[in-house]
Amino acid sequence: MNKNNQNYKETFSAFEPSEKAVEKVFEITTDKRKFSKHVMFRQAAAVMLAFVFAIGGGFGIHSFVGNKNASDNKLGILIAVAGEKNLLEAGKANEQDLFYGIYVADLDDEKAMRDAVSRWQTDRSRLEQQGQEIEKEFGNKPITRSYGSSSGACYSNRLQKETAAFYTNQAGRFLLNLFKYDNVKDITIENTSRYGTITISYWDNDYDLSQMDMDVYYELYGKDSIGYFSSKDYTFNETKDKIVLTKESLLSGIEKEGELLTADGPIKPGYTLEWNPSDYLKNCIGDDIRFDLSQIKDSIIFTVNYDDGTSEQASVSLAFDSDGYMHIGDAK
Predict the structure, then answer these.
(1) What is the DSSP string of 51-110?
(2) Over the stretch 34-67, which tens digit does the pLDDT of each residue have?
(3) Which of 178, 147, 168 is nearest to 81 (CA)?
(4) What is residue 311's three-state secondary structure?
(5) What is the pTM of this model?
(6) Which of 15, 52, 249, 303 is most buried, by the most CB atoms less than 10 A from its CB?
């Protein structure tokens, strides 16, 4: 096996929320700390851990039709991030050091591999440090946060082999600024580029509980509970069906998911949404290791369909620079 190929496979591939952060989630949901050690509920903790900020003033937001939520002026996008301490001001989304980073290196280039891993690990350490600063500043106040990291390979269909190492750091999720669903029929979510895959985490009332430890499950969620956290993916022109969250799923998510705690108070969205590189993008890089990451552009579109037959949309545009860092902009 190529030595560099082996190196990337042995590199740290992902990390979970800290034990302290997980403890906080379960204090919020049940006040029963014993569940934080239970493997099946760590997935729920990861879904809930996010630090949420509003993007206002039209930045990163495209909306139309009348507002249906009395508490908000416009339907828009929230950005859940790690590393900030106060609500973002209009136009300041890109002031966060890192929202999403992609790091690529030729498996046959030892120096490039070292440089990519070094930059990846340095950025990851910065995210961890920023999270620690948040916890230190707010003390016992249970502000939640999340970040993630991964490694893998890019496969070349043309050469029929892996040609590049592929690393990512993530410090953000996306939400609508809509948290009351009484008059919502459903919400449809999609993206517009094959380079990105969006993943929605939500409460699935039809989730198969046959493999669950039901004693723990019922103690956490109640004897009459059904369902569990699940996820769906959508990639433009590759996934047949768009992501659809029904009213039932949204209301169940609010009830079961717990709160995302921000400096301005708690919110209950009932779901979270992530953007990640698609397999198509990785194959493009695999076929051309010199692939310019600034070619990666995408938009996430939320369409809210109301019970009265009207609809409303909000979307956000994402673009990467040549160094592999995501920037958030106005939807076109």
Answers:
(1) -EEE--TTTT-EE-S----TT-SS--EEEEESS--SPPPTT-GGGSS-SEEEEEEETT-H
(2) 444 455 555 554 544 445 555 433 333 333 333 3
(3) 147
(4) strand
(5) 0.79
(6) 52
